[in-house]
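Tokens as discussed.
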């Protein structure tokens, strides 16, 4: 079922609505986590939604955590690379799962250990290792297998992802930002890993933050931030936010 909701406009006397700029249309997709099936569904819905809205300069942003937990991380990475190669106006944010995966795939045993604790098993299997073989590997062997079997262009592609993307009155990040720190001075580790300090902050930020990382049953919308990680790998609900001028709406795949 298509989840599509438009934000109500305030009165003429209200403060100016946040905007991505006139003639600009952004779609940002939350944490995919290996669900290529849901990504393809949502991309189709975005294409149909954008066509119905008419002409605008289209931008697509993936908020990170393309890999782990779901069954086809390798397929998600391939699809992202295909979109980028096809000339799609698409940009990518590096998530904490990409950060760990990259280091593990470059042969680091400690990162392989960490990866195995939060969904990396499914990612490694998606690159061709059998479940029986996986269970027999120690972390040094796992890192070595990844070094020799995960395509280097996949690793380099993920490593080229951005830390944050600004668009008018909004900023896209993976996890959030550190309160009271300017966007220019944010640290990558906070942008990829922060949670409670950011989530509980109720004062305005420099810009409205669009983020993933923290799973909620529904879109988590507040005056200073909007979380769109709806746990796709488990729930079957992959969510995108749409922004055009001062308009805001949401698209989602059906729950599994």
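Sequence:
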């Amino acid at each position: 079922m298509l989840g599509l909701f438009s934000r109500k406009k305030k009165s003429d006397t209200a403060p100016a609505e946040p905007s991505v700029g006139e003639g600009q249309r952004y779609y940002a997709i939350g944490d995919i986590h290996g669900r290529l099936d849901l990504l393809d569904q949502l991309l189709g819905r975005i294409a149909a939604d954008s066509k119905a809205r008419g002409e605008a300069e289209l931008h697509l942003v993936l908020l990170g955590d393309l890999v782990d937990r779901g069954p086809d991380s390798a397929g998600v990475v391939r699809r992202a690379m295909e979109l980028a190669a096809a000339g799609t106006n698409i940009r990518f944010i590096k998530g904490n799962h990409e950060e760990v995966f990259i280091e593990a795939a470059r042969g680091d045993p400690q990162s392989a250990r960490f990866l195995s604790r939060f969904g990396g098993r499914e990612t490694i299997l998606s690159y061709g290792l059998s479940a029986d073989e996986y269970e027999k590997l120690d972390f040094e062997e796992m890192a070595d297998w990844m070094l020799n079997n995960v395509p280097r262009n996949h690793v380099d592609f993920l490593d080229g992802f951005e830390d944050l993307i600004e668009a008018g009155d909004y900023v896209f990040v993976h996890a959030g930002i550190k309160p009271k720190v300017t966007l220019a001075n944010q640290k990558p580790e906070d942008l990829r890993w922060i949670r409670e300090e950011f989530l509980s902050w109720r004062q305005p930020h420099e810009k409205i933050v669009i983020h993933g990382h923290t799973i909620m049953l529904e879109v988590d919308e507040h005056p200073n931030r909007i979380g769109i990680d709806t746990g796709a790998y488990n729930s079957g609900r992959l969510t995108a936010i749409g922004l055009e001028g001062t308009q805001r709406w949401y698209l989602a795949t059906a729950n599994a």
